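Annotated sample (chain length 117).
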Amino acid sequence: MPEPLAEALRLLHLGANQRHILLCVGGKCADSALQQESWQFLKSRLRELDLADRDGGVLRTKADCLRVCMQGPIALVYPEGIWYREATPANLERIIQQHLIGGTPVADLVIARAALQ
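Output written by the structure step:
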């Protein structure tokens, strides 16, 4: 594997993350300004809580569209395969505290449970 690629993977702690959250930021599920606000909040909050870029941390991915296209921004958390609606900054804080840290999905925001087989 080329050294720059290996270094990029090492910095992400790929394979050593506890969870992975994907956030829709380009679809039609919510206003684009809200999607970007949610993404910026997620990035900064994971860093503030020391959950980003470390073993046992949370990997985050900006997704153009998660194909639900309503009640967004839509978020998806693996390995559990929990899909969330209305991932606003306030709701992302709940998702971070209760699910990403505490391990319990935020029931009133869950729209689907679809773990990969």
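Annotation: The longest strand covers residues 19-24.
Annotation: The chain has a mean pLDDT of 95.
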